[in-house]
Amino acid sequence: MSKQFDVVVIGGGPGGYVAAIRAAQLGFNTACIDEWKNEKGGPAPGGTCTNVGCIPSKALLQSSEHYEHASKHFAEHGISTGSLSIDVATMLGRKDAVVKQNNDGILYLFKKNKVTFFHGRGSFIAAKDGVYELKAGEESVTAKHVIVATGSNARQLPGAPFDEVDILSNDGALRIPTTPKKLGVIGSGVIGLELGSVWRRLGAEVVVLEAMPAFLPTVDESVAKEAAKLFKKQGLNIELGVKIGEVKTDKNGVIVAYTDAKGNEHHLAVDKLIVSIGRVANTIGLNPEAVGLKLDERGAIVVDHDCKTNLPNVWAVGDVVRGPMLAHKAEEEGVAVAERIAGQHGHVDFDIIPSVIYTSPEIAQVGKTEQQLKAEGRAYKSGQFPFLANGRARALGDTSGFVKFLADATTDEILGVHIIGPFASELISEATVAMAFKASAEDIARICHAHPSLSESTKEAALAVDKRTLNF
Ligand code: FAD
Ligand code: NAI
Predict the structure, then answer these.
(1) Are 40 and 83 in contact (CB under 8 A)?
(2) Nearest CA to ligand 1 atom 46
(3) What span, in angstroms and rounded, lies between the C-alpha atoms of 150 and 177?
(4) Is the dihedral of CA 119, 100, 358, 241 positive or negative?
(5) How many other C-beta atoms can be found within 10 angstroms of the C-beta atom of residue 400?
(6) Which of 70, 172, 248, 464 could disulfide-link to 168, CB 3.0 to 4.6 Å?
(7) Ligand 2 pocket, CB under 6 A
C-alpha cells in the first residue's frame, strides 16, 4: 500500500529540503526523498551543498586561512608561533564534523516541521488521475504535487574520468589526504579558485589551466583585474586561453598535455588534478520518461519562470533547472514553489541574486556588471572606494580590494554592486537589500553606518557615485 502525501520532494539539497519545510509549514502533508549516504551508509541530507560543496569547502577555506595567517601575518601582531605545521587529517576531520552537524540539523528540521523523510532513491513510476506514483527507496508513495530538486554533478573532462584519487572532482578535492606538492586545476571558475586557494595556502604549488582567454568573465572587469593581480601575488599560477589535450595518470600522479595561448605545447606533471569545469544537471535514476517529464538538450529539466515543468503539478528547482547553480537560488525557488502550490504568489527576483567567491580577498557581486551595462547601452554612473582608506580594514590588516557601485545615470537607482575585499560575502547583503527596495546610491550614502566598520566602505562607494567621498 502506497503512503499518500500532498507534496513529495525528490532531493534533499538546499532546494529540496527547504521546499519540503516550507510546504509543511503551509499545512501540506509532505515527504522528502534523498539518497545521499554518509560513510556509514546512513542518511546525509543537504545535498551537494552540505556534503561536498558550500559547507565543507568553507570549512577548509577557514582552516587554511588560519594556517596562512599564522604562518605569514601573526608576526606583525607580535605573535610568534615557533615552527608551524598542519595536520591535514585533523583539518579534514573537523570539516567532516561540520558537515555532520549540518546533516543532523536538517534531519532535526524535518522532524520539527513534520516532514516525512525517506532515505533512498526517488523515481517516477506513473501518473494516474492527477496523482503521481513514485518510488521512495524501498517504499512507494503517491502525491498530487511533486517537486524535483535532484541537483547536479561535476562535469568530467572527456577522456579523463574522475577516479577521486588522482583526477578529482569537488568530492575528491575536499579530501586529499596530504597536501600535494604540485596540484593541477583545470578551470579557473569558482571551484578552481576556492579549492586551489585551500591547497596553495597549505603549501602546494598550484597551476590553474583555463580555456577562456579572459579571467572570471562573469565578474565585473575591474574586479576580475584586481583579483588576477592579487591571486598572482599569492602564488596562484593561472594560465588563460589553454587547450587541454590528453590527460594520463601514472604512478607519480597525472600528466596533462595542453597547448598554451601562443600555441606552444606543454606537459604538466602534477601529483593531483582537480577538474572543475562546471556542473551538469542530474536526473540519474529519476525515471522522467515514465511520466513524460521534459528535459532540454543538456539534460536539465525544462521549467518556466515559475519552476513549472511540462507536467501538471510537477515542479523543479535548483541546479537541475536553468539559472545560476547556487544554493541560495535553489532555496528561494524551493520556497516560492511551495507557496505557489498553496495558491500564494511565491516570487524570486532573478536580477538580484548575489554571488560570492570565497577566496581571500572574497569577491561578491549583485546586479549588473559594468560590461553588461555597456553592452545594454544603459547610461550609468560609478563610484568606487578602496579598503586601503577604511580604518577597520587597516586594523584588520586586510586592505586589499574595493567596493564599487553602479547606478543609473538619471535616477541614481543602484544597478550593481561589486566588492573585492575582506568579508565581501557579508557586505554584499546591504547592497542586495538596497536593490530589492529599489534604493538609489544616495539612499545608502545618507544612511548612518557604524564606525569603524568595513560597511563604511559601502557608504563611501555610494558617496563616490556623486563624487563626494569623505575619506578618500
Ligand atoms: P543538490 O545540493 O545537488 O542536492 C540534490 C540532492 O538530491 C542530493 O542530495 C542528491 O543525492 C539527491 N538526489 C538526486 N537524485 C535523487 C533521486 N533520484 N532520489 C533521491 N535523491 C536524489 N553555492 C553557493 O551558493 N555558495 C557556495 O559557497 C557554494 N560552494 C560550492 C562549492 C562546491 C565545491 C560545489 C561543488 C558547489 C558549491 N555551490 C555553492 C553550489 C551549490 O552546492 C549548489 O548550487 C546547490 O547544492 C544546489 O542545490 P540543489 O538542492 O539544487 O541540489
Ligand atoms: P564554473 O562554471 O565556475 O567554472 C568553470 C571554468 O572552467 C570556467 O572558467 C570555464 O571556462 C572553464 N573550462 C570549461 N571547460 C574547460 C576546459 N575544457 N579546459 C579548461 N577550462 C575549462 O564551474 P565550477 O568552478 O566547476 O563550479 C560549478 C558550479 O558550482 C558553479 O556554477 C558555481 O556556481 C557553483 N559553485 C559556487 C560557489 C560559490 O558560490 N562560492 C563555489 C563553488 C561552486
Answers:
(1) no
(2) 327
(3) 29
(4) negative
(5) 18
(6) 172
(7) 186-192, 194, 209-212, 244, 276-279, 324-326, 355-358
The cell numbers describing 408, all together, are: 543609473
Select from 362, 338, 318, 287 the least CA-distant residue to 134: 287
> Which domains does the chain carry?
3-154+280-348 (3.50.50.60), 167-277 (3.50.50.60), 352-464 (3.30.390.30)
Task: Kindly list the protein residues whose Cβ atom lies closer than 6 A to any atom of ligand 1.
Answer: 10-16, 33-36, 47-49, 53-54, 57, 121-123, 149-152, 170, 191, 282, 285-286, 318-320, 325-328, 330, 358
Tell me how far apart the alpha carbons of residues 349 and 236 are, in angstroms, rounded to a whole number: 35
Q: Write out pLDDT tens, residues 245-266.
A: 999 999 999 999 999 999 999 9
Q: What is the pLDDT of residue 215?
A: 97
Q: What are the residue numbers of the active site?
A: 451
Atom number of ligand 2 nearest to Cα 193: 25
Grid cell listed for 213: 582567454
CA distances from 62 to 14, 185, 234 (A): 22, 20, 17
Query: Which pLDDT band, with edges at 50, 70 and 90, does 1 fall under?
Result: confident
Nearest to 143 by CA among 118, 109, 106: 118
For ligand 1, mutation pick of 37, 54, 365 (most atoms within 8 Å of CB): 54
Q: Count of CB atoms within 10 A of residue 86's CB?
A: 18
Q: Which three cell numbers stand for residue 302?
A: 525544462
- Cα distances (Å, whole numbers) of residue 178 to 164, 271, 359, 364: 14, 11, 21, 30
Report pLDDT for 270.
98
Q: Which ligand is nearest to the CA of 153?
A: 1
